[in-house]
Design goal:
single chain; 327 residues; mainly alpha; Farnesyl Diphosphate Synthase; two-stranded antiparallel sheet; 73% helix
Length: 327
């Protein structure tokens, strides 16, 4: 196994390169929020996937650090705007941009980040930058579609499982897919090979979000890093709630509906009552089955690449670490 693509080294280099990005300095109110959100931390999963995909065929990953950071800048742009829409007070345990400054500043800073993505992508050494930009544009629009669907779901009484899977595919998974596709293309893969990498990332991303839904209810508080049961408290239509409504009999459905509608109920009591219903219905097991289905699809797609197994080791190991996460 090649050692120059060690995950820790890659993450360290990504963090160093983020600090070296020069967005601009004046007016400070526009650029300080960008530096702030990008240095709050995070897993750097998306640019890391770009580097790992590139590394399947090539070893000089330093050449694509800036294009790889494009997906991280775009991801953080979506977080800034999502936090405004959700009126979220915290992001990664710190004050959100719109709370620390104001919503108008957050919108402008986010817009600037979204434009700067193209500057970073244009650093790519490729004979077909137009194709890469079109693939990114498609991904960016799909992320917006997913966010709109997620907001639509807040006011829709009933959501089908297939609709939820489609929403998380757009909102979360397609950017993981593009991150891998970008790395594959820059590493010399054909468009057809890079599409297989993209599909691998999309399947992984869906499984990743389903795991997040499960951890929100069944994760350990000290490991999960945020309030367990938060989705239940906010009546968020996750896969678990959708599956519970599908499996419940009339009495169970009525009980669940009353729990969701009760605005006076103690939050801990609500979480425990809904969780008890989930346990009765086998919702956790059904959700894990669906999650594992997408993880299996991901690895089956990756195995379609005609590449030596040793070239895929680090990418597979990183994917397995995502599957095994407990936070």
């Amino acid at each position: 196994m090649k050692t120059n693509r060690n995950i820790d080294i890659l993450v360290s280099e990504l963090n160093k390169s983020i600090k070296e990005l020069n967005f601009g300095g004046y007016p400070a109110e526009l650029y300080e929020p960008i530096e702030y959100i990008l240095t709050l931390g995070g897993k750097r999963m998306r640019p890391l996937l770009t580097l790992l995909a590139y590394g399947i065929k090539k070893e000089d990953w330093q050449k694509i650090l800036k294009p790889a950071l494009a997906v991280e800048v775009f991801h953080n742009f979506t977080l800034v705007h999502d936090d405004i829409m959700d009126d979220a007070p915290l992001r990664r345990g710190k004050t959100t941009v719109h709370e620390k400054w104001n919503s108008n500043t957050a919108i402008l800073s986010g817009d600037t980040m979204s434009i700067y993505v193209y500057e970073l992508l244009l650093e790519a050494e490729t004979d077909d930058i137009a194709y890469i930009l079109r693939q990114f544009n498609r991904c960016a629009i799909e992320v917006c579609e997913g966010q709109q669907l997620d907001m639509n779901f807040e006011t829709e009484e009933r959501i089908e499982e297939i609709d939820y899977i489609n929403m998380i595919m757009l909102k979360t998974a397609v950017l993981l897919g593009f991150s891998l596709e970008l790395g594959g293309l820059l590493g010399g893969m054909t468009k057809e090979e890079a599409v297989k990498l993209r599909n691998f990332g999309i399947h992984m991303g869906i499984g990743f979000q389903l795991k997040d839904d499960i951890l929100d209810v069944y994760g350990e508080q000290e490991k999960f890093g945020k309030q367990v049961g938060g989705d239940i408290i906010s009546n968020k239509k996750t896969f678990l709630l959708i599956k519970a409504m599908e499996l419940a009999n009339a009495d169970q459905k009525n009980t669940l509906t009353l729990l969701l509608q009760d605005k006076e109920i103690d939050s801990i009591k609500k979480v425990n009552a809904v969780k008890e219903l989930y346990d009765e219905l086998g919702v956790k097991e059904a959700s894990e089955e669906k999650m594992n289905l997408f993880f299996d699809k991901a690895f089956a797609t990756l195995d379609q690449l005609n590449e030596p197994e040793e070239s895929l080791v680090e990418l597979k190991e990183f994917a397995k670490s995502i599957i095994a996460r407990d936070k």
